Fold these 2 entries.
Entry 1:
Amino acid sequence: MKVTIEINGQSVSEDVEDRTLLVHFVRENAGLTGTNIGCDTTSCGACTVLLDGESVKSCTVLAAQADGHKVTTVEGMAGPDGELHPLQKAFREQHGLQCGFCTPGMIMASASLLKHNPKPTRDEVRHGLEGNLCRCTGYHNIVNAVIEASGQEVDR
């Protein structure tokens, strides 16, 4: 079937099998490999993208379901001049990553969280990111990064 998805402001049209997952469309058809494939069961959140501005785990969305919609990946977060998004900067500044595998999904889920709650508490950040797993950081620095990106003071 023919699928057309606007990804990071660019229209991507491809003929795909009807069972093609959005994560595979993004990686294989659009060539954007920042979105990671982790578990394929919606458990880890490494594949999180924004679909029409809302975070979704792209391993559980068919490309056909995203036909005609807008997708933002971690590559689309930076400004047109390449300047990092405040969340990307905060993750770097607060050491909110180690191996980096979960980072794209964490950033995308955090963007959705901050859209709905611009000044979350630490507990609200933890709750908002509970569907995204990190096996390296222990989450403390990830929470700090989201707090910093929200413009709040980070507890040191």
Entry 2:
Amino acid sequence: MTPRVMFAIAARVLAQLRRDGRTVAMLILLPAFFISLMWWMFHDKPTVFDQVGGPLLAVFPSIIMFVVTSVTTLRERSSGTLSRLFTMPMSKLDFLLGYALAFALVAVVQALVVVSIALYLLGLDIKGAAWQLGVVAVLDGVLGAALGLFASAFAATEFQAVQMMPAIMIPQILLCGLFVPRDQLPSVLHAISDILPLSYAVDAVLGVAKGNDLTTGTGGDTLVVAGFILAALGLGAATLKRRTA
């Protein structure tokens, strides 16, 4: 890994995003829009919104980051840009870490917007500190980006990259505890949920909502999420193709 190359890749990605206002708007505003829509749906049942609002702060950023990063990376490969980049002294890990760093910075802005709106405009009730919820939300966004980078290695077209989303993300959404608490799932499904990264992302948000500190039980969940991020980036570097066949 070469930090200079990694930062150069991150700067390049951020410059591309700056020229693509629609993508930036989707990354930053869509999670807040979806949370607001859920608040509106449960406007007469605020306790229900308090129950589902926290987990959705993990789910929505992850989904949106997954779609954008997988399609963006695939576009780099199918257009031949990736092949040209690899003619320079750059490793696959430099490329993926640069992308991850760029989208991590976007995730910070995304988290600031969605957490601020959820807490201060929509009245989401949590017992933990807002900054801790923001930290977890950033990690969840980076998790989606890392999974998107990994998934893009198995797609040949942008359409296939989008198809990866339901295959990879929907099972996690169903089993992460959003609809049924994980400890109430059938034993086989509970065991499957224990190896899915979004389960720990949701657990971390729920822990903060209950007032747990990041240095206690919730910290363990955030470390697991960070571990999944590193694993996805490592596997992505191992499987990344320089060009589309």
